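Researcher: I'm preparing a figure for a lab meeting and need a structural model of a single chain. I don't have an experimental structure, so a prediction will have to do for now. The sequence is pasted below. Please return the structure as C-alpha cells so I can convert it later.
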Amino acid sequence: MPLFPHRRAVLRRPPLMRAADAVATAVTTYAVPLLVLTTTGSTALTGIAFLLEWLPRLAAFTIGGPLVDRYRADRVFRAATTGRGLLLAAAALTLLALPAGGTTATGTVMAVGALSGLLAQTSFVAVETLGAQASRAAGAHAHRVQSVQISIDQGALLIGPLLGGLLLLAGPSTLLAVVAVLSVSAALLTESLPGPAVAGSEPDRQSVVASLRTGWHTVRAIPALGWLVTGLIASNLAVAVAQVSAPITVLHTYGASSLAVGAVWSAAGVVALGAVAASRRLIDHHGLWPVGAAAAATACLACLATALAPGLSSYALTIAVLMAGEGALTVVLRTLRARLIPAAVFGGTLSVTIVLIVIPMPVAGALVAALPAGRLPALLLICSAAQGLAMALAFRGLWRHRASYAAPHTPAEQTAGTEPAPAALAAADAS
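Model: Understood. Here is the structure written out cell by cell.
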C-alpha cells in the first residue's frame, strides 16, 4: 500500500498518522529544554536536558531499523506511539502531585524527555521505512513523495514550537497531556500493512547486531551514501547548536519572552515549508545535485549570519533562511538516501545512517552546557564554518558518484515509454 495513494491522500490515515506523531515529537523536543530553562534559569541544565533528550535516541536508532526489518514498520510504529502516550500521561499526573519548580519535578521532566525521545525516534525509523517504500514505488518522481513527507515534518516544526509555548502557559501537565493524546491518536490511525511490502520476508531474519553490521558495510560500500552522511553530520551539528542555543539567545541575549522563541521557530517553519514545496518543481527542472548544492550553500551562509545577528529581528530572519535551506536540502538528501539504500537491507542501513547523523545532537547539547551564554555565538560561528567545508566536500563526492543515484524507472515506465505508472504519479502528486 503506498503511503500517499491518490490526490486526496492528505485526508487519509497514513499522512494523518505521520502528522500526529511529528507534532508530538516537535512539541516535546522544543518544550522540555525550554521548561527546564524557565523553571531553573540554568543554561547548563538546559543544555543537559537537550543532551539527555538525544542520547536515548541514538539507542532507538540502533535498534529501530532491525526491529522494523523483523516485525514490520506499522507494528513498530503503533507500539512506540502507544508507549509514548502512556508515558506522557503518567508524567502529567505525576507533575500534578509535585511542587512546581522543585528538583523532583525538574528531574521528572528531564527523564520524560529522554524516554519520550527514545520512543519518538523508534516511530520515526518506522515511518521513514514506509516513506522509502512509497518513494521506490514513485520511481523517477521519488522527490515528490519526499516533498510531501517533509512538508508534513516541516508543518510539525511550524506548529510544534508555537503550540509548545502556548501549552507551557497552561502548565507542564497540560502540555504533556496534549502530547499524550497526539501520540495515542497516531497509534490509532496506523493502518496494518501487508508483511512482504514493509518487513523482511526472509524466514531467518538477522539479529540486531547482524543487521547493523550489514548496514555499516552497506554505507561503506556505496561512496555516494558515505558522502551524503558526511554532509548531514556537519549540517545537523550546526542546526542543533542553533536550536539548543535559541532559548538562551532569545531570552538572555535579546531579553525576549519564551513565547518569542516559539514565534521565531514557527516563522522559520513557514518559510521552510515554502522552500520544501518549491524544491519539488526546482528538482523537476534542474535535477537533484544543483538544487541540493544551492540549498546547502544557502544554509551554510544563513548559519554564519545567525551567529553574527545583532538583534532579535535579524536573528529571526537568519533562522528562517537557515531552515529554508535545510528544508530544500532535506528533500534532496532523503531522496538520494531512498535511492541509494537497497530495499532488502533498508531498515538496518537506515539505522546506521541515522545514528551517524544524529550524533551531533547530543554533542551540541554538551557543548552548549559547557559554555557560558556569551560564548554561544562563537560556537555557532565555528560550526557554520565546519558545515561549509564538509558540505563542499560532500557535494563534490556526490557529483563524482552521480551515476549511482540516477533516477530509476518503474516497471510501467520501462514498458510504456516516458509516462510514469499511475500509482507512482498518485504518490507524487499528493503534494
